[in-house]
Design a protein that fits this description.
The chain has 224 residues and is an alpha/beta fold. The chain has 7 helices and 10 strands. It has a single domain, classed as Rossmann fold, CATH 3.40.50. The protein is globular and about 50 Å long. It comes from Sphingobium fluviale.
Length: 224
């Protein structure tokens, strides 16, 4: 049997503010299978972003085990963590964070070029992804020339550019109106499935979470 893409065991994270210790994560356990899309539900401030930052290897200060594609993150040095994050993970945030001076296609090419993918190959991959998201006619447009929904679809394409094993999405439609959010999440889920990736999607929207394969809830620092 294939090992899960992600295995989290007894993950803890605490912050100290004004001499008071706040336990945000109190022993989180989570496993995500290959090809599985999991919704991470919880209200604002429940620790969803903190959990995604841990899994995304974006900051330290955590206790516990995070295994991505069988590699234990705690045992990796800085360069190895960067390599694993670059090669195995894709990220979509509430705000698209596209580079304003780059076209849609160039924004999707960029993470590939970091991996030394040839320009022509990177452009081909960008064209395929943007075309699959209905943006074939918008490839040469810069973010300021795109609608909010189009910008977020470019962000989805960028996250999938390097064929990540796991996509981490933090409130990916939280900045969109309901109708646009429905379109973007449908296209996100379709493309993630077509690409064969797994995903962990943080949201507070029960209706959107119901479209995913499984729902877990973060409550008082633990998953239910």
């Amino acid at each position: 049997m294939n090992e899960p893409v992600l295995i989290v065991r007894d993950l803890k994270r605490a912050f100290t503010q004004g001499g008071v210790t706040i336990e945000v994560l109190r022993g989180v356990n989570l496993s995500i299978a290959r090809g599985e899309i999991v919704a991470l539900l919880g209200p604002s401030g429940s620790g969803k972003s903190t959990l995604l930052q841990a899994v995304g290897l974006l900051e330290g200060g955590f206790e516990g085990s995070i295994r991505i594609l069988g590699e234990e993150a705690a045992k990796l040095g800085g360069d190895e963590r960067t390599r694993l994050r670059r090669d195995a993970l894709g990220f979509v945030y509430q705000f698209h964070h596209l580079l304003p001076d780059f076209t849609a296609a160039e924004n999707v090419m960029l993470p590939q070029m970091v991996r030394d993918v040839a320009d022509a190959v990177a452009m081909g991959r960008a064209a395929d992804l943007l075309g699959a998201l209905g943006l074939a006619q918008r490839m040469e447009h810069k973010p300021s020339q795109l609608s909010g929904g189009e910008q977020q679809r470019v962000a989805v394409a960028r996250a999938l550019a390097n064929r990540p094993a796991l996509v981490l999405a933090d409130e990916p439609t939280g900045n969109l109106d309901e109708r646009t959010a429905d379109v973007v999440i449908d296209e996100f889920l379709r493309l993630v499935r077509e690409e064969g990736s797994s995903a962990l999607v943080a949201t507070h929207n029960e209706r959107l979470a119901a479209r995913m394969d499984r729902v877990v809830r973060l409550h008082e620092g633990l998953l239910e």
